Amino acid sequence: MLSQNFKDVEIKTTFQSRFGPEAWLKPYTDKTLESLPKQGKKNVLVICPGFSSDCVETLEEISIQGKESFLKAGGENFDVVPCLNDNDDHINLLEKLTKNFL
């Protein structure tokens, strides 16, 4: 449950990594980012919880291309929460989880 401070924050789930000619899970991240400014949503904070570490998809496709298309479509503020690899707590968590199963 969101705290009272965030009750008016809209959260959208989108899907990245389209590949090949087949349809992918929708809504698409890139198309969503392009459409948000037209809906009056000028500020975006992106988090990629499906990725435990930054990679081409999070760095190039989201942080660079996604930001560029959002701003080009009329967005004003775009920021990305770094993946867990950006924090020592991530490796500590992996170590504890691994040791639990040894």
Count of separate DSSP helical elements: 3
State the name of the first-level CATH class: Alpha Beta
- Mean pLDDT across all amino acids: 86
Share in β-strands: 5-15%
Helix content: 25-40%
Radius of gyration, in Å, reads: 16 Å
Q: Structural class given helices, strands, pairing?
A: mainly alpha
Shape, principal axes of CA atoms: globular
Order of strands across the biggest sheet? 1-2
Architecture per CATH nomenclature, i.e. the level-2 architecture: 3-Layer(aba) Sandwich
Short note summarizing the structure:
36% of the residues lie in helices and 8% in strands.
What does this structure look like?
This protein has a two-stranded parallel sheet. It is built from three helices and two strands, in the order αβαβα. The protein has 102 residues and is mainly alpha-helical. It has a single domain, classed as Rossmann fold, CATH 3.40.50.1400. The longest helix is centred in the middle third of the chain and has 17 residues, at 56-72.
Q: Can you give keywords for this protein?
A:
mainly alpha; 8% strand; 102 residues; globular; 3 helices; single chain; two-stranded parallel ribbon; Rossmann fold
Topology:
Layout (H helix, E strand, L loop, with lengths): L28 H7 L7 E4 L9 H17 L4 E4 L7 H13 L2
Parallel strand pairs: 1-2
Helix pairs in contact: 1-2
